[in-house]
Each structure stands twice: as structure tokens, then as C-alpha cells.
Design goal:
The chain has 443 residues and is α/β, with parallel strands linked by helices. The chain has 16 helices and 19 strands. The strands form 4 sheets. It has a 7-stranded antiparallel β-sheet with strand order 13-12-1-5-3-17-18. Strands 7-6-11-10-9-8 form a 6-stranded parallel β-sheet. 44% of the residues are buried. GO terms for molecular function: glycosyltransferase activity; nicotinate phosphoribosyltransferase activity.
Length: 443
């Protein structure tokens, strides 16, 4: 199934998006030009940076945000909106403009990750779907990025499908690749985005057979000598010996899923080499996170399979992103900057530009410029500033460059480049403040 095969996303929202639309249509404010901004007030405690992920999925969701007859009947039967609003929704499609950080970009507190511009009614309907995607996907990508950094070039693979909601598992696999992972065990994600699919056998396959040798023979007969055999169902020493006896020196690899992974990997490496399987690889799994992966840097491990901690954002399953109105058309037809003044939740008024500045080819600050459309059009950044915003949707026209499997791989490459531009402290797993300061200037 492709993204285009999905059904409507029009009810993947909170009820108050529709009740606000209904009230705004009734008082004549629904079509007021508005600018909404997505940002986070803070990173998860101690994190040095975040990774934007999910914008490609947002574009897919917007394409399908068109209420069906059944959905309109539900809204009508529940009296969630009035008959006039049902009429307004019959041919709904988003006609506004969306700009933001490109997928795979690094973000910090107050980064204008996404800006949605259009009529108030059409923009408010998108709030929940945008936040639900960006918050989760960016959390997973941010955790994945830390794991990939800790792995020091050894491949990390997503094995989290059984630890998440079935739909979240596909989203997590996609976000993990944005964060630098090389493949997934989730076949739907592999099919949908063209990812490398991984997986051979579980402990149950070994337990199914009368002897471990029988299980290994069956797997090799089915998958070839280059397969990876799971070796910790019983005795790892005996399993490795049996694996080489059955597959010979061309054994593809072994997986270890329990115990002291570092010590076991060292022992298994020596055993494999002594038995002549010098090219056989070692994959480790078992509740890995970035800290566990970092602790294995000196162990002879070739790849990591990560599950629970990946799909839960390594303890931070959301980025606390919010969707706030920052500018809107007033009753006289002029655009007016607006902001919340709530204690602890004040927002910065006005539409935004965003740049990153550099010194000696290393990023040293994030610059957020706020102002009117006219003022921002005339703003001239410093020569060494990199523009962080791209246009995803232009007056309803979606830029397909940011959709599909190739866009995910490009986002993964962009993350790697953007991370290389940051001070080395960004790679530290020690708790600390955001690696770059963010300055906000109103012009």
C-alpha cells in the first residue's frame, strides 16, 4: 500500500478544531488570513538538539484531508457543526502556504519548525494532525540520531514494531531512518518507503525444533548460508559452534539478544574467528538505547537492533511542540501580529525567518527574525547565515520533492550534514543546554 492509497485524514483531529471553524464561519472570521507557527518551548531535559521529522507525512496527510460523505454525515449527526459548515466542508482542500525547517534539520527551542498560512478556518483544521505527526516523529528521529552518533558508524536498525501502536510503528520506522538508521524490521514501512527490510528468526523458531541444530539447518536451507542465526536460546558457546558447523565459514552472522552484550560479543568474535568464520558479523539487540550503544563502542559489534527505546523517543516520546497563531488579518483587513501572554506560555508575535550562523565552518547560533511580511521581505541576512526555511506548500500546491521514500533518504543525509556543522558537544550524551543559542529579533 502506498501513501496515496490511504483514506481521509479529516477526522484525525480534535473536536474543537471543527467547532472553532463553525463559530468562525458564523461570525465571518473564518476566512481571515492567518499565520500559525509550530515550535517547542524546550527540548527534552538535558538534550542538546532535536531533529525535525514527519513533514513529508504531513504533506501526505494534507493531501487526504478531505472529508468524505460518511465523515460529513458523522459531523452532522453529532451536531458538531452546523449545516452551513457541512456545506463549506463538502469540497474542502487546503489552499494555503506552508514553510518550515526541512526534514532532517536540527532544531532548538523557539525554532519556527513550521509556519502555516491561509484562512483561519483551513489552518485551524490542520492543528492536531500536524502536531501529532511532528511531535512523535521528531521525538523518534531525535532519539535515533543520538543512537547513531553513539554507534560510531556501525549500522542501527529499527526493531520496534512490537513495542508501538501498529500505525506508530510505521511512522517510527520512517522517523528512525530520518535520524540515521539504515533499515527496519517493519515490512509495511519497508514497502511504503523502499527501506531495507531486516529479520530472520526469533527464539520461538529454535524452540519449535527438537534440536537447535535442526532450527539452524532449516533457516539456512530457507535463507542461505549468509543468514544471521540467533544464538542465545540455550548456550551461546554451543550455538555458535553449531552455527559454524552447519553453515561453514560462509556464515553470515549471529545475533545476541541477552546477557552482558559487550563481554559476550568479545567471546563470540574470538570463537567465530577460531572456527574460521572470520567474516561472520555480530548483531546485538535487547533493550538498547544510546547509552547502552555507547558502552559497546569498544566491543566487536557490527550492528545494533533497537526497539522499545527507539519508538518511545528514548524516554521522551514527544517534543512538546505547539501550534500558535502569530499573525492574522484584523477587521480592517490589515495583517496584525498577535501573541499569547499566558504565564510560562507566552509566544513571540509575527511571522518568522530563521537562519543559522557560522564561524570557521561551525554553527554558532540560531537567528529567528520576526516581523511583518513587508519587513521580512526586505531583510538581508549576514553573508555566512544559512536560510533554514523551505516551502512545502505554495497556495495549495504541494512540493512533491519532500514526499516519498527518496525524500526520507535525503532527509537522513541532511541530518548528517547538519549535525557535522554543530560543535562537537552536540554529540555528548551528558545532560546539558541546547548546543546553540537562539536569538530572536523583531524588525
Amino acid at each position: 500500500m502506498n501513501e496515496s492509497d490511504r483514506t481521509s485524514t479529516a477526522l484525525m483531529t480534535d473536536m474543537y478544531e471543527y467547532t472553532m471553524l463553525d463559530a468562525a464561519l458564523q461570525d465571518g472570521t473564518a476566512n481571515r488570513r492567518s499565520v500559525f507557527e509550530v515550535y517547542t518551548r524546550h527540548l527534552p531535559e538535558g538534550r542538546r538538539y532535536g531533529v525535525v521529522a514527519g513533514t513529508g507525512r504531513i504533506l501526505d496527510a494534507i493531501e487526504h484531508f478531505r472529508p468524505t460523505e460518511e465523515e460529513l454525515r458523522f459531523l452532522s449527526d453529532r451536531r458538531i457543526v452546523s449545516p452551513a459548515t457541512i456545506k463549506w466542508l463538502e469540497n474542502f482542500r487546503f489552499t494555503g502556504t506552508i514553510r518550515g525547517y526541512r526534514e532532517g534539520e536540527i532544531f532548538f527551542p523557539d525554532s519556527p519548525v513550521l509556519q502555516v498560512e491561509g484562512g483561519f478556518g483551513e489552518c485551524t483544521l490542520l492543528e492536531t494532525i500536524i502536531l501529532s505527526i511532528l511531535n512523535y516523529d521528531s521525538a523518534v528521529a531525535s532519539a535515533a540520531s543520538r543512537m547513531v552518533s553513539a554507534a560510531k558508524g556501525r549500522p542501527c536498525m529499527d526493531m520496534g514494531a512490537r513495542r508501538a501502536n501498529e500505525c506508530a510503528a510505521v511512522a517510527a520506522a520512517r522517523a528512525a531512518v530520518v535520524g540515521g538508521f539504515q533499515g527496519t524490521s517493519n515490512l509495511l514501512a519497508a514497502q511504503r518507503y523502499g527501506f531495507k527490510a531486516i529479520g530472520t528468526a526469533a527464539h520461538s523458531f529454535t524452540l519449535l525444533h527438537d534440536k537447535e541444530r535442526d532450527a539452524f539447518v532449516a533457516q539456512i536451507n530457507a535463507l542461505g548460508r549468509n543468514t544471521t542465526l540467533l544464538t542465545d536460546t540455550y548456550s551461546i558457546d554451543e550455538a555458535v559452534r553449531t552455527a559454524v558447523e552447519v553453515a561453514g565459514p560462509d556464515l553470515g552472522g549471529v545475533r545476541i539478544d541477552s546477557g552482558d552484550l559487550g563481554s559476550l560479543a568479545q567471546r563470540v568474535r574470538h570463537q567465530l574467528d577460531a572456527l574460521g568464520a572470520t567474516k561472520a558479523t555480530i548483531t546485538v539487540t535487547n533493550d538498547l538505547d544510546e547509552y547502552a550503544i555507547a558502552s559497546l563502542q569498544t566491543a566487536p559489534v557490527d550492528s545494533y537492533g533497537v526497539g522499545t527505546m527507539l519508538v518511545t523517543g528514548s524516554g521522551s516520546p514527544t517534543c512538546a511542540m505547539v501550534y500558535k497563531l502569530t499573525e492574522r488579518e484584523n477587521s480592517s483587513g490589515a495583517m496584525q501580529a498577535v501573541a499569547k501572554k499566558s504565564v510560562g506560555k507566552a509566544s513571540v508575535p509575527g511571522r518568522k525567518l530563521a537562519y543559522r550562523s557560522y564561524e570557521y565552518n561551525l554553527a554558532n547560533a540560531e537567528h529567528v527574525i520576526s516581523g511583518t511580511e513587508e519587513a521580512l521581505a526586505g531583510f538581508n541576512p549576514e553573508p555566512d547565515w544559512r536560510d533554514l526555511l523551505v516551502t512545502y506548500v505554495d497556495h495549495g500546491s504541494i512540493n512533491e520533492e519532500y514526499q516519498g521514500g527518496q525524500a526520507v533518504l535525503k532527509a537522513r543525509d541532511h541530518r548528517a550534514r547538519a549535525l557535522d556543522e554543530l560543535p562537537i558537544g552536540a554529540l555528548s550524551l551528558m545532560r546539558g543546554e541546547p548546543i546553540l543559542p537562539t536569538t530572536i529579533e523583531t524588525i
